[in-house]
Amino acid sequence: MPGVGARNLPNILVTGTPGTGKSTLCQQLAEAHGLQWIEVGRLAKESGCLEEYDEEYQCPVLNEDKILDIMEDMLSEGGKIVDYHGCDFFPERWFDIVFVLRTDNTLLHDRLTNRGYTGKKLEDNIQCEIFQTILEEARESYKEEIVHELPSNSPEEMESNVDRIGLWLLNWKQDNGVL
Ligand SMILES: Nc1ncnc2c1ncn2[C@@H]1O[C@H](COP(=O)(O)OP(=O)(O)OP(=O)(O)O)[C@@H](O)[C@H]1O
Ligand SMILES: [Mg+2]
Asked: Among 94, 101, 105, 109, who pairs with 20 as Cys (CB 3.0-4.6 Å)?
């Protein structure tokens, strides 16, 4: 089966603008289904993949080649749920499905303000959501049929996303003879 290779569990990518709820969703999915959650930002920090600080964007620069090397063995096993606010530098073959979380601008603004984001950093992130930057990045980087947009405005929507991805996982296991 193309893209699946020898994996006996699928890999899921959860992406979206900062603050849309990726980590909250991934943590719940990991707990519910025994998937291993890879928070790329944290892994990068822990494994020395963050380089000089970008003053303009107020964040450190990720060494993409280095983090991809570290992730390759993990992803080839399958059963991973990858959480990152970008998606165009991962190999396409890693993922069986890609979810892009979306949040209404005013709600996202409140979430990011609560987190202490201000000025350019706050504005850039809100614009990223308004212009659907990550959704377009995902559509350009993966097959259209595996990219799904998920609303993430409320706890109820989060719960429904957990259920929906849980069902997808069950179907995948049935289709691949894992159950
Ligand atoms: N569906 C939701 N409804 C209401 N609040 C949410 C929802 N999803 C996340 N939140 C809240 O929004 C904040 C940001 O969530 P979270 O840290 O999961 O986002 P993230 O996408 O992982 O951000 P980052 O890219 O910066 O890591 C948290 O306070 C979380 O509790
Ligand atoms: Mg996060």
From this structure: 101
0.90 cut: is pTM over it? yes
H helix or E strand, kind and range, residue 124? helix 119-130
Q: Which amino acid makes up residue 172?
A: W
- To the question of whether residue 21 is assigned a binding role by annotation, the answer is yes
Q: Per the structure block, which two tokens stand in for 178?
A: 């894992």
Largest Cα separation within the chain, whole Å, is 51
19 CA to middle of ligand 2, Å? 7
- Per-residue pLDDT for 1 more than 80? no
Residue owning the nearest CA to atom 24 of ligand 1: 18
List the one residue out of 34, 61, 37 whose CA is nearest residue 49: 61
Residue 72 tokens, joined: 């390759």
Tell whether ligand 1 has an atom less than 6 A from the beta carbon of residue 159: no
- Nearest residue (CA) to ligand 1, atom 30: 21
Euclidean distance between CA atoms 170 and 148, whole angstroms: 17
Which has the closest alpha carbon to 78: 162, 149, 178, 174? 178
